[in-house]
Design brief:
Helix content: 25-40%
Distance between the termini: 37 Å
Radius of gyration: 17 Å
Structural class: alpha+beta
Strand order of the largest sheet: 1-2-3-4-5
Order of helices and strands: EHEEEEHEEHHHH
Shape: globular
C-alpha cells in the first residue's frame, strides 16, 4: 500500500486506522480511556487497541465483557461507547465480509482501505446499512450519531444510559477524568 499509518507502517485497517502500540506512554493510554462514560465494566479493564480518525477501539481485559471489542467516538458531546464486536476474531470477520461485499475497498487516491462507497455521495453508515444489511455496522470504523441501532446496542450491552443523557453526561465525564487524574498522579505521569 502507498499510504502510511500514524506509526509509519502501511495501514491494513479500514479508514486509515492504526494499531496502537503497547502503552509505553501511560498518560496517552489513560487519555483514550477517558472516553469510557457509562460502560458496564471498569474503565481500567481495557486496553486501547486501534485508533481511527475519530474512533478508538479497545480490548476488554476482564469481567463479564472480557474479550469484547468496544468503540468510542472522539467528538465533542459524543457519548457513544458501545460494543463493536464480541471478539477480535468477530471484528475481523465482519471487516472481511465488508471487503467481499465491496463496502470496504482500496481507495485509489491514497492507497488506504476505506469504508463506504467510492463516490462518497452518502454517509458511510448509510451505505453499510443499505448495501450490507446482514453485517454489523457498529463493527466498522464509521461515525454513527443519531442511529437508533447505536442506542439499541448500548442498552443491550449494559451502557448506563443515564450517564449518556444530556443532563448527566458532562458530570459523569468530569468524574471519570478525576479518577483518571488520580491514577496519573499515583503513577507520576
Amino acid at each position: 500500500m502507498r499510504g502510511t499509518a500514524h506509526t509509519g507502517a502501511a495501514s491494513l485497517l479500514p479508514n486509515r486506522g492504526w494499531l496502537l502500540p503497547w502503552p509505553a506512554d501511560a498518560n496517552e493510554a489513560l487519555t483514550y480511556l477517558s472516553l469510557s462514560v457509562g460502560v458496564p465494566f471498569s474503565w481500567r479493564h481495557q486496553l486501547p487497541l486501534f485508533h481511527f480518525e475519530y474512533l478508538i477501539y479497545t480490548f476488554v481485559l476482564a469481567g463479564d465483557h472480557e474479550g469484547e471489542i468496544w468503540r468510542y467516538e472522539i467528538a465533542p458531546d459524543a457519548w457513544d461507547a458501545v460494543r463493536a464486536a464480541p471478539s477480535l476474531a468477530a471484528l475481523f470477520t465482519e471487516w472481511a465480509k465488508g471487503l467481499a461485499a465491496g463496502v470496504v475497498y482500496l481507495n485509489d487516491l491514497d492507497g488506504f482501505l476505506a469504508v463506504g462507497e467510492r463516490s462518497h455521495g452518502r454517509r458511510d453508515v448509510d451505505v453499510l446499512l443499505e448495501r450490507t444489511p446482514t453485517l454489523d455496522p457498529l463493527a466498522f470504523p464509521v461515525s454513527m450519531p443519531d442511529q437508533p441501532l447505536l442506542r439499541e446496542r448500548q442498552v443491550a450491552c449494559g451502557v448506563d444510559m443515564s450517564c449518556v443523557g444530556a443532563d448527566r453526561r458532562f458530570e459523569r465525564f468530569e468524574a471519570l477524568n478525576e479518577e483518571i487524574d488520580a491514577v496519573r498522579a499515583s503513577l507520576g505521569v
